Amino acid sequence: MSQKVAVIGLGYVGLPLACLCAEKGFEVSGLELDEKKILMIRQGKSPIKDSFVEEKLPVLHEKIFVTNNPGEALQSSGVIIIAVPTPMRENKPDLGALKSALVSVEANLEHCQKKPLVIIESTVYPGTTAEVAKPILEKRGLKAGIDFELGHCPERVDPGNKEFGIGNIPRVVCCTTREGSLGAKEFYSKIVNAEITVLDSIIAVEAVKVFENTFRDVNIAYVNDLAKGFDRMGIDIKEVIRGASTKPFGFMPFYPGPGVGGHCIPKDPCYLIASSKKAGFTPKLLELARKINKSMPAYVVELVENSLKQKKLHLKSQKICVLGVAFKPEIDDIRESPAWPIISMLKEKKAALNIFDPFVPGASTAKSIEDAVSGCSCIVLCTQHRQFLEKITPEFLKSMGVRVVIDARNCLDKKGIIEKGILYKGIGS
Questions:
Q1: Domain closes at, from 170, 200, 230
Q2: By three-state DSSP, how is residue 209 classified?
Q3: Does residue 5 contact residue 77 with C-beta atoms inside 8 Å?
Q4: Which terminus of the chain has a smaller tally of CB atoms within 10 A, N or C?
Q5: Are 93 and 193 members of one domain?
Q6: Is 185 helix (H, G, I), strand (E, B) or coil?
C-alpha cells in the first residue's frame, strides 16, 4: 500500500487524523480551503482546541503538506480520506462540502497511485456512498472496485475525552470489494491501536455512526423527560440515577441537561430520520426524542423565570449570568451548544446578560468568573467546566449576592447552596 495519504478537510476530524498519519510515518498532504487554517498549520499552530493536535502539530507540521489546490494535495496519493462537515440545513442533510470534495477527487483520480483507496469519514445517511459518492467518482468512466476502491469508515471523535482519542478508538469499515475492505483494514491498523472491524456492506457501516448517536439522543431525551416529571413529583433524579447505577446489568446511566450539543448528536438522528422517511418509514420515537431534547433550552429559561418569581424578582429588571457556551466541558467547541438558544430566549425576554466561558473568550462578555457573576441575581450554568466547579462554591455565590442558581448540569453543591439561603434549581434536581 502507498505511503502517501491525502486528507480532505482539516477540521476537528481531519487535522488530528493527518497528524496521526504523519506520526506513523506516512507521507501526508492536506486539502483545506480556509487560508487562515492553512497558514496556522504551516506554522505548527493548531487552529482547533485539541490536545492531541496541540501536542503533535508543532513537531509534525513540516511533515504535513497543506494546500488549497486539489491537484497538489491528491497527486500520487494511495489513500484519500474525506473528512469534511456534513451539517443539517432546514432539517435536511447538507452534502454540499462532501460533493465538492468528491468532485475534486474525481478530477484527480488518474494522478493518484494505481487503484487508490477513497474513504469517506464524514458522517452520512445510509446509502450516501452508493447514491452520491459513487456516481460522482465514476463520472468520466473510472469504476469503483476496478480503478479505485471506495469505502466508508465513520469518524468517532470525542472532543475532550482523555481515555479514548483518535489513536485508540475502534473503527468499522467496508469498501466496494473485499480486497478494498482488507486494504482499508490494513491501513487503519497501521495508525490505530484498536480493533478494526470489517462489516459486510457499506450501507451498514454508514448506519453505524447515526445509530450510535441516535441511541444517545433517545436515552438523553428519556432522562430529560423524566427529569421534568420528577421535578413536579419532588424526586431528585440524580439520586434515582445513583441508585439505578448500582444494578450491574441491564442499565446504563444517562444524565439530564439543557439540551444536546456538538456536531454529531443533534444531527445524526436527523440523518437517520430522513433516510428512514425516504424508505417509507417514519421513526416516531426518534422524532419525539429530537423534540424533547430541543425543548430543553426553553425549559431552562422557564426555570429562570419561575425561580426569580419565587424570589419576587422580575426577569426584565435583573442581570443574569450565563456560565459556559461550549457544548461540553474543557473544550472550545460551540457547535449546536444549547447555551445559544438559552441566551437568545433570555435576550428576547429583555434580560440583561453577562456571559463567560474560559475556553471561548470571543463569545464572553466578561473576562473572569468574578466579573461575570458581579451584579447578577441569577446564574445559569450551562457547561460543566472544571473551573466552574472549583470556583462556584456556596460561599462564593453568597459573597457575590447571587439569589438564584439554575444548575442545568446538576453539578454544583445543591445542599450547600440551599443552606446559604440561595434558591437552587437543577434539571430534575
A1: 200
A2: helix
A3: yes
A4: N
A5: yes
A6: helix
Biggest CA-to-CA distance, the chain: 74
162 and 38: one domain?
Answer: yes
What are the residues facing 88 on neighbouring strands? 93
Based on the fold, state whether residues 412 and 306 are members of the same structural domain.
yes
Residues 6+ apart with CB under 8 A from 65: 28, 29, 30, 72, 73
Say if residue 311 is in the same domain as residue 279: no
The span from the CA of 164 to the CA of 421, in Å, is 41
- 101 and 188 belong to one structural domain: yes
61 with 43: CB under 8 angstroms?
yes
Residues 324 and 257 in one domain: no
Domain enclosing residue 380, as ranges: 296-426
Packing angle of the helix pair 14-23, 51-60 (nearest 10 deg): 50
Among residues 146, 165, 200, the one where a domain terminates is 200
Same domain, 17 and 64: yes
Instruction: Per residue of the chain (429 residues), give pLDDT as tens.
Output: 458 999 999 999 999 999 999 999 999 999 999 999 999 999 999 998 888 999 999 999 999 999 999 999 999 999 999 999 998 887 777 999 999 999 999 999 999 999 999 999 999 999 999 999 999 999 999 999 999 999 999 999 887 788 999 999 999 999 999 999 999 999 999 999 999 999 999 999 999 999 999 999 999 999 999 999 999 999 999 999 999 999 999 999 999 999 999 888 998 999 999 899 999 999 999 999 999 999 999 999 999 999 999 999 999 889 999 999 999 999 999 999 999 999 999 999 999 999 999 999 999 999 999 999 999 999 999 999 999 999 999 999 999 999 999 999 999 999 999 999 999 999 998
- Residue 111 CA to residue 163 CA, distance in Å, equals 39
Q: For 423, list phi and psi in degrees, rounded to 5.
A: -75, 125
Specify the pTM.
0.91
- Asked if 35 and 128 sit in the same domain, the reply is yes
Query: Positive or negative CA dihedral for 376, 381, 384, 385?
Result: negative
Q: Known catalytic residues?
A: 264
Three cell numbers at 400? 457575590
Distance CA 345, CA 270 (A): 24
Domains held by the chain: number: 3
